[in-house]
Amino acid sequence: DGQNVITLQRTPSTNEFLRKVLTKSTPLAEGTVIMAVDQYAGRGQKGAVWQSEPGKNLTFSLLLLPSFLDPKDQFSLTAAMSLAVAKWLSAMLKVPAKIKWPNDIYIGNKKIGGILIENILKGKTWKSAIVGIGINVNQTTFPDTIRDHATSIKQILHRDSKIPELLAELCSYIEREYIVLKSGDFKALLADYKQRLYRLGELHVFLVDDVEVTGMLTGVTETGRLQIDFNGHMVDFDIKEIAFVI
Ligand code: BTN
Q1: Fewer beta carbons below 10 Å: N end or C end of the chain?
Q2: Where would I find the BPL/LPL catalytic domain in this sequence (predicted)?
């Protein structure tokens, strides 16, 4: 609910920080948020880095304890968190925010944010989920390698935003989707997620085993595999098996 916010001036990664606190067996309440002003070694998916200019962006990790969730349904947590971010941004920016599978957030063809969820499981039960979220807020220049594919709230609204206020707003969207998740309505989450998928129903170039292939993105399976239609042949992929070409 955004009530338990711990703000760190400088830390390598809020996900790492939260993980360390948890492994030191300090019990933390569900909903605890670790926010960094300067996160200097942020991590992204597939071992990527998440770069953020000090003080300019929203970089935080949220602790969830989804013990009610069967690990086989863990994609629904990804869907719920992505939906919360996309809905919040769409409402604030008044432009559609899309979810680039599995959980990048795009405005047009530019990335505005990303999510890195790290699940801590103990056997077949769920201990905790570290939901790391990075949103470009007041940053307007980006490294060469991502310049053409990155955007920020400021680049769209042309003004600075107050980061703690954004965090509180986003947390209320997260809470709403988390309640849907708790209710067990995975079908609703999945349908909602599919509606917001970046490039849904479009022909697109993907990289599969280092080969460029063109197919139509048709949706995701219940377990979160990406479904592509290659001339009438439906194939699904997990995150390690396929990448978007741009
Ligand atoms: C991605 O785009 O691949 C995911 C990016 C996730 C970045 C956030 S910022 C807060 C949290 N701490 C990290 O080290 N990463 C996540």
Answers
A1: C
A2: 1-182
